[in-house]
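Render Single-stranded DNA-binding protein in 3D.
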Amino acid sequence: MLNNITVVGRLTKHPQIYDKEGRKRATFTVAVERNYRDKNNQPIVDFLFCKAFGKLAENIEHYLKQGSLVGITGQLHSSKYEKESQTHFISEINIEYIKFMSSPKSDNTVQTHTSNIESYNPFDNLDPLTINPNEVIEIV
C-alpha cells in the first residue's frame, strides 16, 4: 500500500516545539489553497495539521515562522481519541521531507499571500462530531 501526500502551503501560526528527553517535535498547521474558488470568488483553503520529529523539527524551529511558504511530503495518519465521552477524529501529516520556499525566519520580509489565514487555526474549538458530511458546498 502507498501512503504519500505532498502539499505546498503557508504556516498559519509559528510552529510549536516540544522537547521530550532530548527528542524534538514540531507541530504546525499549513493552509493549502485548492484550485478553485467558491461562489463569492474566494479561494477555498484546507488547513492541514503537520508533525515533524528530530532534526526536521530542529530545522523547523530555526527557519520557519507564521506565513512561511513550505513544500511538504509525508504520510497521512488518522487517529481518534475520547474527550468528555465523545469520540474525536483527527488527520495529520507526519513529515518526511520539507522544503523551505520563503525567506529564513530571521528575515522579517516574509509576507503571506492571504491575510485572512495568518492567525486562523481550524483546530481551535473544533468539534468533529458537529461536522455534517452530507453538507454540500456550492462551487462555481
